TrEMBL record:
Its EC number is 1.11.1.26. The lineage of its organism: Bacteria, Pseudomonadati, Pseudomonadota, Gammaproteobacteria, Oceanospirillales. The keyword Protein biosynthesis does not apply. It comes from Halomonas campaniensis. CDD domains: PRX_Typ2cys (cd03015). One of its GO terms (biological process) is response to oxidative stress. Its main location: cytoplasm. This is Alkyl hydroperoxide reductase C. The active site is at 47 (cysteine sulfenic acid (-soh) intermediate). Thiol-specific peroxidase that catalyzes the reduction of hydrogen peroxide and organic hydroperoxides to water and alcohols, respectively. Plays a role in cell protection against oxidative stress by detoxifying peroxides. GO terms for cellular component: cytosol.
Amino acid sequence: MSLINTEVKPFKATAYLNGEFIDVTEADLQGQWSIFFFYPADFTFVCPTELGDLADNYAEFKKLGVEIYSVSTDTHFTHKAWHDSSETIGKLQYPMIADPTLQISRNFEVLIEEAGLAERGTFVVDPDGKIQIVEINAGNIGRNAEELLRKVKAAQYVRANPNEVCPAKWKEGEETLAPSLDLVGKI
């Protein structure tokens, strides 16, 4: 079953953010756009490149009213240790959610049960707490924050303009499509 247009299931977790441990629940998502960015583990190879890329683009996401939540099955203590010891991870200004119980990874259907780790899953959640974008990458394929930013802009555009759709490679300010019988077979 697809998770598209389903509500984020209830959860409560501890996250590391700016030198503090904070609680995060599904209620925190209400009224804003959110990204859940699952990755396999702290202190690894591809993961810090992805999290650093998000950190480099974080201000652009914030301008769009988007909060990013990185999530791994590590503990919040491990997140703090990684944040304190890595120059790349030290740049992060978004919450690093700890999922040692594996509940959140199971809720988003990205848990690798036999390993106790999460797949590289990206989920864009709308202000109603519903999942609008799902992307899962193999463990050895990193993601691109600029492409994710483009997808968030498209999701926000079609939410604000429900009679339009964004074609392939759409970028903010470009033409959209208004689905109709007149377009069938003409594109």
